[in-house]
Write a structure and sequence with these properties.
53% helix, single chain, two-stranded antiparallel sheet, 374 residues, globular, 14 helices
């Protein structure tokens, strides 16, 4: 049974849209820093985290854009060697990983789990949490492996100490063995999905508890600063994986169990259904194309809000070129009426307010914008 996520979370659409814009802007800033910083990896990770946060908020109001954001986040994490990136791309990516990429990732995970002394295992995949995310991603792709390759992965995973691991994983702090058990059941042949339903129900209950606790501080909650993943991409992705693996039977079982808990507990499950529909629509769209460029918006009539660093953004926190809020900086504050690059609220400025109906960069909730109101 679906619920209204915004109503359950006591949030307004425009409030959520502002938070999406905030996290996207921070991601742009971090990517700008990464272009010039010696330690570019750290800034890229900041950008990936911000894009994931933006994507989770966007899941509530704009699932198509959420896929764009989660894909961009996943690409960065994946390129940096984090299993979490592969997990995101498997669930939400605009294009599935190709067979060569999957085979390489499988080999790397087997080496990591067997403690093989190989430079081919990136440092992040030495950590159990990242191994768990990569295992979940690969288990969903079992049909794309040869029987011998899938069998080797299952044998290594069955013998791993992670089956009893208690290290917390994800924002809900679920024990490692929960993620490992879900991955094993996705990988094996058969229909033993009841334990996975139980895991999803348990995680949904903890999600509801965490949201209730977060909403206790109204200021942090309304500002989007509460320490909680509002849409919980982990839980949504796991539910999507179960639906793809076992079909309607799994979905009905999850609905039956979670509706006994609370409306809040059903928010990630509801969002998983919405996001899965968006992914399937994108797959149908790709099948009709001969050009398979990626990433791609599912609706190319809408201009893609591609993250790209702006030249006028400060490149580092310690950049001597002070921020636009520095009164002594030639790029004076946005509130300086004499500045030729005055605020967006300056009606005479060519980059007038986002609410200006004639501005081609009007907001997504501006009905005249090509990405018009929701």
């Amino acid at each position: 049974m679906a619920v209204d996520p915004l109503a359950e979370l006591s949030l307004e659409e425009e409030q959520v849209a502002r938070l999406v814009d905030f996290y996207e802007s921070y991601a742009s800033l971090a990517l700008g820093w990464a272009d010039v910083a010696a330690d570019s990896g750290r800034h890229r990770m900041e950008a990936a985290s911000a894009l994931r946060s933006a994507g989770q908020w966007a899941m509530l109001v704009d699932p198509s854009h959420a896929l764009d954001l989660l894909t961009e986040s996943g690409v960065i994490w994946h390129d940096l060697g984090h299993g979490f990136g592969t997990f995101l791309l498997t669930a939400f990516g605009r294009r599935p990983l190709d067979d060569d990429e999957l085979a390489q990732q499988r080999e790397v995970l087997v080496m990591a789990l067997t403690n093989s002394p190989s430079d081919d295992v990136p440092p992040p995949l030495r950590h159990p949490q990242q191994q768990a995310y990569l295992f979940l991603a690969l288990a969903q792709m079992r049909r794309r492996f040869t029987p011998s390759a899938a069998g080797q992965l299952e044998e290594v995973a069955e013998g791993s100490a992670h089956r009893q691991g208690v290290m917390p994983v994800g924002s809900l702090g679920s024990p490692l063995h929960t993620y490992w058990d879900i991955g094993l059941r996705l990988l094996r042949n058969g229909d033993d999905y009841a334990p996975v339903v139980g895991h999803v129900a348990s995680m949904s209950g903890r999600y509801a508890e965490s949201v209730v606790s977060a909403k206790a501080n109204e200021h942090l909650w309304t500002a989007g600063a509460a320490p909680v993943d509002v849409s919980d991409s982990d839980l949504a992705a796991i539910t999507m994986a179960g639906r793809r693996r076992w079909g309607l039977r799994f979905t009905e079982s999850v609905d039956s169990v979670t509706q006994r808990v609370s409306g809040l507990a059903r928010v990630p499950v509801t969002l998983s259904r919405v996001m899965d529909g968006e992914v399937r629509a994108g797959e149908h769209d790709r099948a009709a194309r001969t050009d398979d460029r990626w990433p791609r918006s599912s609706d190319e009539s809408k201009p893609r809000r591609r993250i790209s660093p702006k030249e006028d953004l400060p490149r580092r926190l310690d950049d001597p070129r002070a921020t636009p809020g520095d009164d002594d900086h030639p790029r004076a504050t946005r509130g300086d009426d004499d500045d030729p690059r005055a605020t967006r609220g300056d009606d005479d400025h060519p980059r007038a307010t986002r609410g200006d109906d004639d501005d081609p960069r009007a907001t997504r909730w501006d009905d005249d914008h090509p990405r018009g109101g929701r």
